[in-house]
Amino acid sequence: MFDTVVVATDGSESVKRAVDVALDLADRFDAEVHALSVVDASEVDASPQQLREELRTALETTADAALATVEERSDADLEIDTAVREGRPAAQICEYAREVDADLVATGTRGRHGENRLLLGSVAERVVRTSPVPVLTVRQLEPAGEGTDDEAVGAA
User: Are 131 and 148 in contact (CB under 8 A)?
Assistant: First the structure.
């Protein structure tokens, strides 16, 4: 059913569960795994000119660390191809999924909704809307005692 899974990661807490779920799914289907981290070009472009290269380097280092985390969380016999891209994250994730002929893209989401989502935007939401393949979104669970339900995984 799934031969190629793309895991989109920025290394944030909200992505850690998505990585675990995607790696488990890939293991169950003996699928090829591609981990992708995108350096957001808009962050670089919005910074002062004299800081852009330093910021780009810092963001690339963060992206490399995010990919290393995916590799660390994987089963020892699960090979993972990694890539860092620069651009608009949602567009790069969808483009990469096309390039590797992915069957599924997995990403994390903070589970924001309503006004917060509209104000902050969501890479996961853009990926769901524009991906050429199904997208598995895995919501970060809130700490115990915050009154959330256990529904954490949604597929689009």
Answer: no
H or E segment and range at residue 62 = helix 52-73
Any residues with CB less than 8 A from the CB of 38 and at least 6 apart, and which? 8, 10, 63, 84, 85, 86, 87, 88, 89, 92, 93
Give the Cα separation of 95 and 25 in Å (integer): 22
Per-residue tokens: 62: 């963060």
Determine the pLDDT at residue 114: 52
Q: What pTM does this model have?
A: 0.82
For helices 52-73 and 13-29, the axis angle rounded to 10 degrees is 40
Which CATH architecture is the domain 4-155 placed in? 3-Layer(aba) Sandwich (3.40)
